[in-house]
């Protein structure tokens, strides 16, 4: 049963002696088996849209490490792809998109409820995982939060400071808000259908939330998350939701209560001690080992892992990294982290 899975128990607010553990980007380029499957698919997008192969790479880290949860293999930019934006990936550089910078570009996008045919392979991946994953492994669906996805759609690529999105927000507020609303509606549809297909919990990744300050953080990070979570809980009572407003700083404080999130994921720019006092008081937290430890390993990895587990031990906690594992990580260091968390 879902409520007996370690991850689901943490999301329900249970404090456990050994926290559940999974890892952002746990299916990825640091694993030789992933690289082999991606080569078989041909390219990254083809891998995302091939349900059998996407399920295979989702399963690979579960077979190798026995994580307590598997996160759907997909990408946060599949929503703009489904809305009609052009999307492609440049090897070694990352995603590229056609840009939405004027009304004509926005008007060419599809309505939010028209995304499902395009995303059908993603839902099929979840149905496969529901059949194939071990009974104790929780199934996590996900989407990018509207602000983060909008930054890519406006700039046409990832940017260091999200300046093009901030410029559009400041110069053409009605267009920017229309795009945010379209993305919010599409995210609700996408995550709702993921839950119907087998996701037991979903995570909202707002990777660039930290570049929103003051009222903008409230309007474009907190409020969209609140609307998405409220609608998902209305459609799917009892399904827990993880929110990750990365590098929110003080914006983490009260985020769970304000949005209805069941768990707040933390990056490693905040200390566990600070998070215990300011975030874990409201419920489950997830995090927050620096991903660099997966590269460097050694005693520092062991010490910091133990420190995080010990600091969060008096409340509900899901052990994870503060950001995704990087391609240069050593798979042996992942095992060392897991063994340390579990007391091996």
Unreliable spans: none
Number of strands: 9
Gap between N and C termini, in Å?
27 Å
Order of neighbouring strands in the sheet with most strands: 1-4-5-6-7-8-9
- Mean pLDDT across all amino acids: 97
Secondary-structure element string: HHHHEHEEHHEHHHEHEHEHEHHEH
- Characterize the largest beta sheet: strand count, sense, and whether it forms a barrel: 7 strands, parallel
- The residue fraction in helices comes out at 40-55%
Radius of gyration: 19 Å
The number of distinct helices, counting runs of at least 4 residues, comes to 16
Strand content: 5-15%
Outline type: globular
Question: Structural class of the helices, strands and pairings?
Answer: alpha/beta
Defining traits:
two-stranded antiparallel sheet, 9 strands, 16 helices, 7-stranded parallel β-sheet, 344 residues, 50% helix, alpha/beta, 12% strand
